[in-house]
Design brief:
Layout lengths: L1 E6 L6 H12 L1 E5 H7 L10 H20 L3 E5 L5 H14 L2 E8 L2 H14 L7 H10 L9 E4 L6 H11 L1
Parallel strand pairs: 1-3, 1-4, 2-3, 4-5
Helix pairs in contact: 1-7, 3-4
InterPro entries: P-loop_NTPase (IPR027417)
Keywords: Kinase, Transferase
Organism: Microlunatus kandeliicorticis
Length: 169
């Protein structure tokens, strides 16, 4: 069993990648936006840090339980700042399982295209421009953590999915 953290900016394709990997590896996906929604929180707006801390604690408990049951776990989150990634490493270590970090990269122009397309089609929850800007400004890229890199335009590509699945499962 493994714990895989997907890291990257909003609208980079992490959820698409998570779904594809979950299918290939019979893994449980833990999506922090969905946890916030279930808690009645609007993730499109800035949330207080204490609410994010509660969401992370809940996600850690869900992941630990799935790992105890012998399931692979994929965490669909931005994975920033670095202490968030470190906390997920601890969850994996406590469960006695491996940890993988997958960084889905996207440039700001492509991200903007996706945000605007989503606002037109309403394919997923929107994120306000203020929240996107704040996240972009504070994002701590995992450049020194040897992540598995995936380009945002390749998150649904079968070859990319198989390459990442081989690396994490």
């Amino acid at each position: 069993m493994t714990l895989t953290l997907l890291c990257g900016h909003s609208f980079s394709g992490k959820s698409t990648l998570a779904a594809g990997l979950a299918e290939l590896g019979d893994a449980e996906v833990i999506n922090l936006d969905q946890i916030n929604a279930a808690r009645g929180l609007d993730g499109s707006k800035a949330l207080p840090l204490e609410e994010w801390a509660k969401t992370n604690d809940l996600a850690h408990r869900v992941a630990a339980e799935a790992l105890r049951k012998g399931r692979h776990v994929i965490v669909d989150d931005t994975g920033s700042p670095c202490f968030i990634r470190d906390a997920w490493r601890e969850v994996a270590a406590e469960a006695g399982t491996s940890f993988s970090l997958v960084w889905v990269t996207i440039d700001s122009a492509r991200q903007r295209e996706r945000v605007l397309a989503n606002r037109e089609k309403r394919g997923r929850m929107d994120v306000s421009d203020d929240v996107l800007a704040a996240h972009g400004d504070s994002f701590e890229p995992p450049t020194k953590e040897d992540p598995i890199l995936v380009d945002a335009d390749d998150t649904a590509d079968p070859d990319t999915l198989h390459r990442v699945a081989l690396a994490v499962f």
